Amino acid sequence: MAKPEFEFGPVDRVEFTDCTPHIEGLSEAILARDDSSDAVTRILKFEPGTDTSPNGALRHDFWEEVFIFSGSFRDLRLNQVFKAGDWATRPPGMEHGPWVSEEGARMFEVRYYPREEA
């Protein structure tokens, strides 16, 4: 099944839950999910002081597009700060993170899987 149809509504009605694996201060609000492919649209929230180092650098098998709309975080591997207004497009297999957010941050994220060739 594809992501469900949803006409505009306030995002504050979507509950934040802990991410998996759990990192203290990191949570997500799932806006839409395609259960057949696990494609996801979400808001990721870093509370002030969140450190994702226990997860190490990440790589995954899906595309990921992110836009930071508030706050900032430091990419520990790149030693670079990314802030509100910055965005990224990450293809499957691209290494990224870990991060530390001193002030907290929120970002809009869309995950999807490569289309299988016919």
TrEMBL record:
InterPro entries: ChrR-like_cupin_dom (IPR025979), RmlC-like_jellyroll (IPR014710), RmlC_Cupin_sf (IPR011051). Pfam families: Cupin_7 (PF12973). Residues 17-108 form the ChrR-like cupin domain. This is Cupin domain-containing protein. It comes from Arthrobacter horti.
